Amino acid sequence: MASRNPSVSRAGRVFAWCLGALLIIALVGIAWIGVRGLMAYSHLQAARTGLVAVAQSADQSVDPAALSSVGEDLRAAHELTSDPLWRAAERLPWIGPQLAAVSAVSSAGADLSESTLAPVADLAASFSLDAFRPVNGQIDMAVLTGLRDTALAASAGLDSAVAELSAVDRSSLLRPIREQVDELEDQLDAASTLGEAAVALPSMLGADGPRTWLLLFQNNAELRSLGGMPGATAVITADAGRISLDDRGTASIPRFDEPVVDLGAERIGIYGERPAVWFSGTTILPEFAEAAVSAREMWKRAHGVEADGVVSLDPFALSYLLRATGPITLPTGEVLTSENVVDVLLRQVYVDYPDPRVQNDVFASATAAVFGAVVGGAANPTAMIGALAQAAEERRLLLWSSVEDEQSLFAGADLAGSLPATDGGVARFGVYLNDGTGSKLGPFLDVDVQVEWDECAAASAGSSRSATLVVNLANTAPADAAASLPSAIAGGNYGVPAGVLRVVSYIYLPEGAELMSTEGIPVGAFGGGLDGGHRVLSHQVDLPPGGTSTVRVNADLDALAASALAAEVTPGFGVSTVASSCSR
Description:
Mean pLDDT: 84
Shape: globular
Distance between the termini: 60 Å
Largest sheet: 5 strands, mixed
Low-confidence stretches: 458-462
Strand content: 15-25%
Number of strands: 17
Radius of gyration: 29 Å
Strand order of the largest sheet: 3-2-1-4-7
């Protein structure tokens, strides 16, 4: 039997010991990272829970102690994910990007705890939302100035945190981690926008001189792309925080012989000149900035007043504000509440007042009454902020400013009323609906919009991808609508029988998408063109009572880096949307 070589045996034992030591070190390292990762996750979750609690507090007050605790958790998470071992592990395949993303979130949070939460906590120590409550139509500008200064102090930290998260490569992240990073980035973007708005608010309310805002009241009973036909108007004047409502009336501005603004060849090819010659047609344009410019110019030519900006709202937005003000009584005797205002203004008014001029007077007086309650201090500040946020999110409250620096703050925000943008991995379609008869049958139109990937696997893998948009419309008016409904509601104009809903639709494909096919639109029955980077399809359909329509649009999204789909739809009554996403 051959004897063993002592040197070889010794080398084997040394190798085994070294390998064992490396394994132990690796296991210890994994355990170290795992334990610290769990602890960091616990701190991040605690911070998130604390921020949600602050945001959802019953009285919208901000507890400085709660913010301080959030800051401590964020700093602790950063300390746990920034040691040399953690940094080294970030270079490993697969697990490394996950650790780097967690570290980036923790780092952004720690920066925010110092640069943003600290000034907010200082303000919260002496701040109450009641300070926003107007007194005799006057808002305390000192409160707004303090809010602006805090926003300025916090803005650099917010911008830095957004930039840090934007630099995170999401391509190899697990879905739960990617969603958390995306959600935090979206929240910080929203916070940054709010901060910028807080900076602009004093000027918008007349801190630097009187400002005028044209107020449009959109009537959803007669559908337009942005919501409804402008049915009543007023001018809001703000001077050093004192707010008044003047020039209340109707939108009875005559047709202009020539377009008041240049819509451009592309949009004229889609919409014709109507949005630039008819005040009632301005909101056919689905981009509020363009509609507002046209409405502002028409108002200037008709009344000699050039507004600094345009604000739009609809009866649904009024219903949200009435939750904050409580019931109000109109000069005509109607009592408006958050529960009945939509029905009163969009149905009952046509039953009680056949004269269109009186109908518009009711719209104007309702808007003025709610406005008076708000600026008179009757509104609960907490409920009012919630009402405005809901109205903006649903695109029922829209705003445009002629001051470029102010308008840029709202770019991409819901209240800007912009065209659908493809960003953050989401490809957005647009479905904009218009009444083609001059009827007030909008409350009887049910809208169901669905958008989904044709093959989810292809969308996730990055291969050839296509999606289908489905638009279902239904006229729920009674079968005897022509006889049972007032003529103002049932219509019967432009050769369309009473009770029939003529719906003119404009469907916007995501920017860069290519049209593949359509179903439900007869050959040669649709028009459209290009609006910026969007392919636009337009078509009309006549729906008798009980009638339905289904249109399918298939689009190639291969050129878009998107894993999720969405659709923006004209805000109306029975509107539902279903969107899908494809991700790991």
